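for the writeup, i need someone to sanity check this before i put it in the appendix. the sequnce is what the collaborator sent (i think, or maybe the updated version? ugh). structure was predicted straight from it, no edits. if anything looks off just tell me and ill rerun, i have time this weekend
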Amino acid sequence: MDSNKKIKLLVIPDLFPKFEGDVQGIFILDYLKSVKDYCITNVLFIRLVGKKGLTVDVNDDYTTYRYCISSKKTPVFLKPFAYLIWFIKGYQLGKKFTDTDIIHSHGSILSGTLSYLLAKKLKVPFIITEHQGPFSMTSDNYWKLLWTSFIMQRADAVLTVSEHLKQEILNSGIRPKKIIVTYNPVDTDLFQLKTNTEVTNNILFVGRLDNFKGGLRCVKAFERITEKYPLYTFTIVGDGEDYVPIKNYIESKPFKERIVLKRGLSKAEIAKEMQKADFFVFPSRHESFGLVIAEAISCGLPVIVGNQTAPKEYVSKDCGLLVPPDDIDAMANAMEQLLGTFTSYNASTMRQQMVADFGFNAFGKRLKFIYEEGHK
């Protein structure tokens, strides 16, 4: 492939924003932006439920083809039939992209299978980026593992968002032709270095309020330091299964007014919240990458994160602390330690590392090289 010629890329994601401002699959937009200078990109996103039919959205960076099978929720007993229609419509639409150079699937079972079928039809290579964590959600199910193994071993390359996820895939017995750790792109243009260097007396958590992410455990850790640090507040941005338990837990607590709960914020709004924090806390039990952690470090925030999975690959002692994600005492101790030391971290150096490793410029060049290698 001529290195100066733009690559004609077809992206098929499992998740993708359904509308402007939707956060589902929003990380895919970072992938698309990172390669905009190298690729002419079409996105094919098939859904079971939504505005029935085909919708085409064009912007400067890519064109999105959304197709919804039905405007009504599919009954459980009809789901297999609905997914059969999903594949048929996806194939009918996808085979029209006859000038495609390479297909990039985000996901292995649905999007990966469709990408495999279209790659054979269009006679082009296809690659898969796997995001799922923990991968045991696939490997513990015989049929899912069998299907995923079949697709991954036929892809021209499997990309993983961490070394941890790569090892989970290999440990499951899957042997792709190539398996490459790319990590995730980070929008370092949006997540800018803090301009306010004054102490804000605020600790920040951002993420889905699912139990494994640790929002409620953070509240309990914060509770243990409230008397000693009466000026500090704790802001929690997110929604999910733990939102109500968190509200119920703090309802009768004397520190109730020092917990700020914010739901449904956009990426831009989250970036603004990071400008108003002294440090970031996110003790998740499992992350395949941990995008929000890298975004916080990009803003120059020291972080407290779980020590078990992917984040420990890029969170060094120079940008934060690693803690056992279920140890509330360790979390409280880490908070207290950062309260005394967060100003000693070199915010500019922390950010520079994120830009060099995960910024759009570096990540886009990484993907461009992979696309060109796959097309040879």
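The CA atoms of residues 194 and 341 lie 17 Å apart. The mean pLDDT is 95.
thx in advance!!
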